[in-house]
User: Fold DUF1449 family protein from Sphingomonas gellani.
Amino acid sequence: MLEQFLTVPYLPFTIACVVMIGIGLIEAIGLGLGHLDLDGDVGGDMHGGVLDWLGLGGELPILIWLTSLLGCFTVAGVAIQQVAEGWRAAPLAWPLATAGALLVGGLLNTFAARMLARIIPGFETSVISSDDLLRQRATVLEGTARRGAPARAKVVDRHGQAHVIMVEPHDDRDAIASGSTVLIVRRDGARFFALADDDTFLRSI
Assistant:
Protein backbone atom coordinates (compact mmCIF):
# COMPACT_ATOMS: atom_id res chain seq x y z
CA MET A 1 0.00 0.00 0.00
CA LEU A 2 2.86 2.39 0.82
CA GLU A 3 4.40 1.84 -2.60
CA GLN A 4 1.06 2.74 -4.17
CA PHE A 5 1.11 6.16 -2.48
CA LEU A 6 4.51 6.87 -4.03
CA THR A 7 3.25 6.37 -7.57
CA VAL A 8 2.51 9.40 -9.77
CA PRO A 9 -1.33 9.15 -9.64
CA TYR A 10 -1.23 9.30 -5.83
CA LEU A 11 1.70 11.72 -5.44
CA PRO A 12 -0.32 14.96 -4.98
CA PHE A 13 -2.20 13.37 -2.10
CA THR A 14 0.97 11.99 -0.55
CA ILE A 15 2.55 15.46 -0.63
CA ALA A 16 -0.60 17.00 0.88
CA CYS A 17 -0.52 14.42 3.68
CA VAL A 18 3.15 15.15 4.46
CA VAL A 19 2.49 18.91 4.55
CA MET A 20 -0.51 18.32 6.82
CA ILE A 21 1.63 16.32 9.25
CA GLY A 22 4.29 19.05 9.18
CA ILE A 23 1.77 21.75 10.08
CA GLY A 24 0.43 19.52 12.83
CA LEU A 25 3.94 19.20 14.28
CA ILE A 26 4.39 22.98 14.21
CA GLU A 27 1.19 23.36 16.19
CA ALA A 28 2.15 20.54 18.56
CA ILE A 29 5.50 22.03 19.60
CA GLY A 30 3.70 25.16 20.74
CA LEU A 31 4.92 27.88 18.42
CA GLY A 32 1.37 29.20 18.40
CA LEU A 33 1.50 30.28 14.77
CA GLY A 34 -2.09 29.28 14.28
CA HIS A 35 -3.15 31.67 17.03
CA LEU A 36 -1.28 34.78 15.93
CA ASP A 37 -3.00 36.99 13.37
CA LEU A 38 -0.06 38.52 11.47
CA ASP A 39 -2.25 41.22 9.96
CA GLY A 40 -3.90 38.63 7.75
CA ASP A 41 -7.18 40.52 7.49
CA VAL A 42 -8.70 39.07 4.37
CA GLY A 43 -11.20 41.34 2.60
CA GLY A 44 -13.64 42.41 5.27
CA ASP A 45 -16.45 42.84 2.75
CA MET A 46 -16.13 39.17 1.84
CA HIS A 47 -17.00 38.20 5.43
CA GLY A 48 -20.31 36.41 5.52
CA GLY A 49 -19.95 35.39 1.89
CA VAL A 50 -17.13 33.40 0.33
CA LEU A 51 -15.14 33.23 3.57
CA ASP A 52 -18.11 31.84 5.50
CA TRP A 53 -18.69 29.29 2.76
CA LEU A 54 -15.05 28.20 2.97
CA GLY A 55 -15.25 27.89 6.75
CA LEU A 56 -13.03 30.93 7.37
CA GLY A 57 -15.78 33.26 8.49
CA GLY A 58 -15.40 32.41 12.17
CA GLU A 59 -12.41 32.48 14.50
CA LEU A 60 -10.80 29.23 13.37
CA PRO A 61 -7.01 29.80 13.10
CA ILE A 62 -5.70 29.66 9.55
CA LEU A 63 -3.28 26.78 10.21
CA ILE A 64 -6.06 24.64 11.69
CA TRP A 65 -8.23 25.42 8.67
CA LEU A 66 -5.37 24.61 6.27
CA THR A 67 -4.64 21.34 8.08
CA SER A 68 -8.31 20.40 7.77
CA LEU A 69 -8.32 21.28 4.06
CA LEU A 70 -5.21 19.19 3.37
CA GLY A 71 -6.73 16.27 5.25
CA CYS A 72 -10.00 16.48 3.30
CA PHE A 73 -8.09 16.82 0.02
CA THR A 74 -5.98 13.76 0.83
CA VAL A 75 -8.96 11.61 1.83
CA ALA A 76 -10.98 12.70 -1.20
CA GLY A 77 -8.08 12.07 -3.59
CA VAL A 78 -7.30 8.60 -2.27
CA ALA A 79 -11.00 7.70 -2.34
CA ILE A 80 -11.31 8.88 -5.95
CA GLN A 81 -8.30 6.84 -7.04
CA GLN A 82 -9.50 3.75 -5.18
CA VAL A 83 -12.93 3.96 -6.82
CA ALA A 84 -11.29 4.48 -10.22
CA GLU A 85 -9.10 1.42 -9.73
CA GLY A 86 -12.10 -0.68 -8.76
CA TRP A 87 -14.11 0.57 -11.73
CA ARG A 88 -11.53 0.66 -14.53
CA ALA A 89 -8.63 -1.31 -12.99
CA ALA A 90 -6.37 1.76 -13.10
CA PRO A 91 -6.19 5.09 -11.23
CA LEU A 92 -7.04 8.36 -12.94
CA ALA A 93 -4.32 10.64 -14.28
CA TRP A 94 -3.09 12.87 -11.44
CA PRO A 95 -4.37 16.20 -12.92
CA LEU A 96 -7.89 14.81 -13.23
CA ALA A 97 -7.79 13.20 -9.77
CA THR A 98 -6.39 16.39 -8.25
CA ALA A 99 -9.16 18.52 -9.76
CA GLY A 100 -11.78 16.14 -8.42
CA ALA A 101 -10.15 16.00 -5.00
CA LEU A 102 -10.00 19.82 -4.80
CA LEU A 103 -13.73 20.03 -5.49
CA VAL A 104 -14.79 17.22 -3.15
CA GLY A 105 -12.20 18.07 -0.50
CA GLY A 106 -13.21 21.73 -0.53
CA LEU A 107 -16.83 20.81 0.05
CA LEU A 108 -15.91 18.41 2.84
CA ASN A 109 -13.70 21.01 4.47
CA THR A 110 -16.55 23.51 4.56
CA PHE A 111 -18.38 21.24 6.98
CA ALA A 112 -15.22 20.08 8.77
CA ALA A 113 -14.06 23.64 9.46
CA ARG A 114 -17.44 24.64 10.86
CA MET A 115 -17.46 21.58 13.09
CA LEU A 116 -13.92 22.27 14.33
CA ALA A 117 -14.81 25.87 15.15
CA ARG A 118 -17.64 24.59 17.34
CA ILE A 119 -15.90 21.73 19.14
CA ILE A 120 -12.46 23.26 19.77
CA PRO A 121 -12.86 25.65 22.71
CA GLY A 122 -11.08 28.92 23.28
CA PHE A 123 -10.31 30.04 19.75
CA GLU A 124 -12.51 33.11 20.06
CA THR A 125 -10.38 34.27 23.00
CA SER A 126 -6.92 33.07 21.97
CA VAL A 127 -6.73 34.45 18.42
CA ILE A 128 -4.83 37.71 18.80
CA SER A 129 -3.34 40.44 16.68
CA SER A 130 0.42 40.83 16.60
CA ASP A 131 -0.10 44.35 18.01
CA ASP A 132 -1.41 42.71 21.18
CA LEU A 133 2.17 41.61 21.92
CA LEU A 134 3.25 45.23 22.31
CA ARG A 135 3.96 46.31 25.91
CA GLN A 136 4.52 42.67 26.84
CA ARG A 137 7.78 41.31 28.22
CA ALA A 138 9.77 38.73 26.29
CA THR A 139 12.89 36.65 26.91
CA VAL A 140 15.66 36.48 24.30
CA LEU A 141 16.20 32.79 23.58
CA GLU A 142 19.51 32.72 21.72
CA GLY A 143 22.05 35.03 20.13
CA THR A 144 22.52 38.74 20.72
CA ALA A 145 19.94 41.11 19.29
CA ARG A 146 21.40 44.12 17.48
CA ARG A 147 19.95 46.61 15.06
CA GLY A 148 19.69 44.81 11.71
CA ALA A 149 20.47 41.45 13.37
CA PRO A 150 17.36 40.29 15.27
CA ALA A 151 17.37 37.44 17.77
CA ARG A 152 14.64 34.95 18.61
CA ALA A 153 12.60 35.73 21.72
CA LYS A 154 9.65 34.14 23.48
CA VAL A 155 6.68 36.15 24.66
CA VAL A 156 3.58 34.88 26.45
CA ASP A 157 0.33 36.68 25.56
CA ARG A 158 -2.53 37.48 27.91
CA HIS A 159 -4.08 34.07 27.24
CA GLY A 160 -0.94 32.21 28.32
CA GLN A 161 -0.07 31.27 24.73
CA ALA A 162 3.66 31.38 23.93
CA HIS A 163 4.90 32.99 20.70
CA VAL A 164 8.39 33.04 19.21
CA ILE A 165 9.19 36.38 17.59
CA MET A 166 12.19 38.19 16.14
CA VAL A 167 13.43 41.09 18.28
CA GLU A 168 15.81 44.00 17.71
CA PRO A 169 16.87 46.72 20.16
CA HIS A 170 14.76 49.88 20.07
CA ASP A 171 17.90 52.01 20.18
CA ASP A 172 20.38 51.68 17.33
CA ARG A 173 23.47 51.34 19.53
CA ASP A 174 22.07 48.82 22.01
CA ALA A 175 22.73 45.08 22.09
CA ILE A 176 20.52 42.63 23.98
CA ALA A 177 22.17 39.41 25.12
CA SER A 178 20.66 35.94 25.23
CA GLY A 179 18.60 35.34 28.37
CA SER A 180 17.73 39.01 28.80
CA THR A 181 14.19 40.10 29.58
CA VAL A 182 12.90 42.91 27.39
CA LEU A 183 9.83 45.10 27.00
CA ILE A 184 8.36 45.10 23.49
CA VAL A 185 7.69 48.72 22.52
CA ARG A 186 6.95 48.69 18.79
CA ARG A 187 6.97 46.57 15.67
CA ASP A 188 7.58 46.85 11.95
CA GLY A 189 5.89 44.04 10.06
CA ALA A 190 6.91 40.76 11.66
CA ARG A 191 9.89 42.35 13.46
CA PHE A 192 9.56 43.65 17.00
CA PHE A 193 11.66 46.25 18.78
CA ALA A 194 12.32 46.14 22.51
CA LEU A 195 14.05 47.79 25.46
CA ALA A 196 16.07 45.62 27.82
CA ASP A 197 14.85 45.59 31.42
CA ASP A 198 18.17 47.05 32.55
CA ASP A 199 17.70 50.01 30.20
CA THR A 200 17.92 53.30 32.12
CA PHE A 201 14.61 54.40 30.59
CA LEU A 202 12.83 51.47 32.29
CA ARG A 203 14.41 51.79 35.72
CA SER A 204 11.79 54.29 36.78
CA ILE A 205 8.88 52.14 35.54
